[in-house]
Amino acid sequence: MDYRCVETTFKRPACLLQFGMLGSMAVVMAYRAYLIIQKADHPPVEVEVESARGSGKWAICEHPDFRTLYGAGFGIMSGQWLGGSAVSGQSLAGQDGSKLSTQVIEFGGWKLSCAIVDLTSHPLQAYPGAFWLCSQAAVTWFLLETDKKWVRVAEHGPGHLAVQRLSMQRYGWDWGYDSNHSDVFATLPIIENPKGARHHQKHCHMTQFEKKRQDATLLLIVIDSPHVIVTTSLGILPQMTSLLGTLGGLMTVMGLIFTTVFVQKYPDSNVVATFRSRTLIGHQENGNPALPPQDDGKCPVPPVTYTSQQQLPNKVVTRARRQSGVPPIPVPPGIRHP
Fold first, then answer.
1. Residue 248 main-chain phi, psi, to 5 deg
2. What pLDDT does 201 receive?
3. What is the DSSP secondary-structure string of 22-47?
4. Is the pLDDT of residue 331 over 70?
5. HSE (CB half, 13 Å, CA atoms) of 126?
6. pTM for the whole thing?
7. What sections of the protein cross the membrane (predicted)?
8. Burial letters 104-123, b for 16+ CB under 10 A, else e
9. How far is CA 64 from CA 114, 133, 206, 214, in A?
10. Is the model's pLDDT at 33 over the cut of 80?
């Protein structure tokens, strides 16, 4: 796209068209770049759907007023959740076994003795699926790690059965040179049954921390979908990279518009046919063709070349001299030019 290649009669309109399109493109790109920088604190986001990697990290903790956790356990169901507290299949322990150990967690200003159930790399075997969290304590706090901090999702006493639905999402940033995402979980209570735990204790793989036994407290976590919505905020660098891609597309469109309005003046000439002729890679030749190819309207004819041992025919030389205005070579009397 170059207005200088247009013949003199139409050079001014071509110049106006070219610089008009370039100016419009520059204004659009500058405005887009301004918006990207101005809205750096409120960037656009990309939303994707990925497979769930796990079921979160949980803590079964003692109550700060009742400082004893007698036992804890969990069970991952092999079948599907059937509604309520009914789950098909068998209760399976985690891949690392069902043994749990206690550790101290700081939560709300207290240091609590808790059993950690890490299911971040344990997706369920069927969906909608479920898993059990069980405890033996006077009062149990069930904690869930979300966005790198602990939150309390339930507080129940012995014999209590609760069912909650777990939803999972991932939020993060993409800066172009690096990215960072955090898992965010949320629970929604479905069923509360203060006396329903006794019928489901068989699903727990309990680990006893104290000799004293207590009626179990059960929390059934239900997950409906194996997919997670991933929301990524875009930094300035990936937005600018996308803007450069838009620039390339605009340049292509402008080139198409220009070549559609200002076409080749001699599209069927020998020069154009020579320019458009092609060959297999490795068979190209240096220099200019000895004779321009003739275009019959179908495909350009390959140029005719002559080696150093060959001579151009006299007819070709004479015709070329006549077309160029050079006088013919003098010949003896009685001999005519071909």
1. -60, -40
2. 82
3. HHHHHHHHHHHHHHHHHTTTS--EEE
4. no
5. 14
6. 0.67
7. 16-34, 243-263
8. ebebeeeebbbbbbebeebb
9. 11, 19, 22, 17
10. yes
